[in-house]
TrEMBL record:
<dbReference type="Pfam" id="PF00005">
    <property type="entry name" value="ABC_tran"/>
</dbReference>
<dbReference type="InterPro" id="IPR027417">
    <property type="entry name" value="P-loop_NTPase"/>
</dbReference>
<dbReference type="InterPro" id="IPR003439">
    <property type="entry name" value="ABC_transporter-like_ATP-bd"/>
</dbReference>
<keyword id="KW-0547">Nucleotide-binding</keyword>
<keyword id="KW-0067">ATP-binding</keyword>
<protein>
    <submittedName>
        <fullName>ATP-binding cassette domain-containing protein</fullName>
    </submittedName>
</protein>
<dbReference type="GO" id="GO:0005524">
    <property type="term" value="F:ATP binding"/>
</dbReference>
<feature type="region of interest" description="Disordered">
    <location>
        <begin position="1"/>
        <end position="25"/>
    </location>
</feature>
<dbReference type="InterPro" id="IPR003593">
    <property type="entry name" value="AAA+_ATPase"/>
</dbReference>
<feature type="region of interest" description="Disordered">
    <location>
        <begin position="278"/>
        <end position="348"/>
    </location>
</feature>
<dbReference type="InterPro" id="IPR017871">
    <property type="entry name" value="ABC_transporter-like_CS"/>
</dbReference>
<feature type="compositionally biased region" description="Low complexity">
    <location>
        <begin position="278"/>
        <end position="292"/>
    </location>
</feature>
<feature type="domain" description="ABC transporter">
    <location>
        <begin position="49"/>
        <end position="280"/>
    </location>
</feature>
<feature type="compositionally biased region" description="Low complexity">
    <location>
        <begin position="302"/>
        <end position="313"/>
    </location>
</feature>
Length: 348
C-alpha cells in the first residue's frame, strides 16, 4: 500500500445494496447514505472544502503560499498547474498527510488540524503514485482497503462488490492486479477509495500515463459514481482537455499560489477579452473573469497580438498565460520527474 494513503476510517453505513448482474453501476450501490448527506450539504450551503491562507514549507522552500479556496458540495473541481506548482503538497495538507495550523483547512466544516480523524473519514484519496498491490487480486486489494477504512465486517463483502461494480471490474475482480491493464489499475484504485463511501474524493493525476481510451473509461466511472451519490470531487491533472470537459470550476496554481479561478468558460473568455484590449480591438460581450494575479507580458517571439485576439482561446492557452515562460527551468525537479515516470511506466 502506498505511504500516501491517508489510512482513514470509513463512516459506518447501513447494509449494502445488491450488485446487478451486468457489473454496471448499481443504483445507490456505492453509498446511499452519501447521496442523502450530499443533498443535505447542498441544501445547507456549507462548502465541501475551504482553505484559508494555506501555507506549507519544506525547509526554506515555500511549496504552498497563501492559498484561499472554496469547493462547493457536489462539484468537480480541478486544480491545475505545472510540475512543482504546489498542487500535490496542497492535496497532502487537505488529506492530513501533512500537518497544518488550526483554521487553514476545513472539510465539511471539520478542522483538519483539530479533527484529523474525522476529516479522514470524509475523504477518499487516489494518490499519484500507485497504491494497488500487484500480488493481490482486485477483490483482495479493495477488501484490504475496506478493512483499513474500518468498514463493518458484516457489510464488507457487499461493499467491496459494490465498489468493484461501480468501476466495472466485477468480471476481473478475482484476477491478480499484475494482469490488469493501466486503465484497469487506475479503476481498481478508484474502487479502493470508494469502498469507504467518501463525501469528498481526492484524485491526484488519476489518468497519468494512460491512453485516451483508458482515460475516458476512468472518467466515465468517476462521473457515474458522482451522479449516483452526489459526491464532491477534487482532481489535479495536466490534461487540459479533461479539465475543460469534466470540471465545473478550475483553479490555476503556479509557484504555490492560485493565479486564476473560475469555470473553464470564464477563464477562456477573460483571456480573449484581455487579448482584445491589448490588441486595441473591442471585446465582444461575455463573462469576463479577472485572474488572481497579473499575467506576464507576451515575449517578442510570441504570436502577434492581432492573431491571438482573433483566435478563440483554449484552456491550454489560459494555462500558458498564467504560468508564463520558462517552465522548463521553474517546474518540478528530479524527484517529480522520477515519480511521474515511475507511475506512467507502471500503468503503461
Amino acid at each position: 500500500m502506498s505511504s500516501e494513503d491517508p489510512g482513514r476510517s470509513a463512516p459506518r453505513t447501513g447494509p449494502g445494496a445488491a450488485v446487478d448482474s451486468t457489473g454496471a453501476l448499481p443504483g445507490r450501490a456505492v453509498a446511499a447514505d452519501t447521496e442523502q448527506v450530499s443533498a443535505a450539504d447542498r441544501a445547507s450551503g456549507a462548502d465541501a472544502l475551504t482553505c484559508h491562507g494555506l501555507r506549507y514549507d519544506f525547509g526554506e522552500t515555500r511549496a504552498v503560499d497563501g492559498v484561499d479556496l472554496a469547493v462547493r458540495p457536489g462539484e468537480v473541481f480541478g486544480l491545475l498547474g505545472p510540475n512543482g506548482a504546489g498542487k500535490t503538497t496542497a492535496i497532502r495538507c487537505i488529506t492530513t498527510l501533512l500537518p497544518v495550523p488550526v483554521g487553514m483547512v476545513r472539510v465539511f466544516g471539520r478542522d483538519a488540524a483539530r479533527e484529523r480523524m474525522a476529516v479522514r473519514r470524509l475523504l477518499g484519496y487516489v494518490p499519484q503514485q500507485l497504491s494497488a498491490d500487484s500480488g493481490l487480486t482486485g477483490r483482495e486489494n479493495v477488501a484490504l482497503f475496506a478493512r483499513v477504512f474500518d468498514v463493518p465486517r458484516r457489510e464488507r463483502a457487499a461493499r467491496v462488490a459494490q465498489a468493484l461494480a461501480a468501476v466495472n471490474l466485477t468480471v476481473a475482480a478475482d484476477r491478480l492486479a499484475k494482469t490488469y491493464s493501466g486503465g484497469m489499475i487506475r479503476r481498481l484504485e478508484l474502487a479502493q477509495a470508494l469502498v469507504s463511501a467518501p463525501r469528498l474524493l481526492m484524485l491526484d493525476e488519476p489518468t497519468i500515463g494512460l491512453d485516451p481510451i483508458a482515460r475516458t473509461s476512468v472518467w466515465e466511472r468517476i462521473n457515474e459514481v458522482r451522479a449516483a451519490t452526489g459526491m464532491t470531487v477534487l482532481v489535479t491533472t495536466h490534461y487540459m482537455d479533461e479539465a475543460e470537459q469534466y470540471c465545473d470550476r478550475v483553479a490555476l496554481m503556479h509557484q504555490g499560489r492560485i493565479r486564476a479561478l473560475g469555470t473553464p468558460g470564464e477563464l477562456r473568455e477573460d483571456l480573449r477579452a484581455r487579448r482584445a484590449r491589448t490588441a486595441g480591438t473591442p471585446a465582444a460581450p461575455g463573462t469576463a473573469f479577472t485572474p488572481a494575479s497579473p499575467s506576464p507580458s507576451p515575449s517578442p517571439s510570441s504570436p502577434s497580438l492581432s492573431s491571438l485576439s482573433a483566435a478563440e482561446p483554449t484552456l491550454e492557452d489560459v494555462f500558458r498565460d498564467v504560468a508564463g515562460t520558462g517552465l522548463d527551468e521553474q517546474s518540478g525537479g528530479f524527484r517529480d520527474v522520477r515519480s511521474t515516470r515511475r507511475t506512467a511506466a507502471r500503468v503503461g
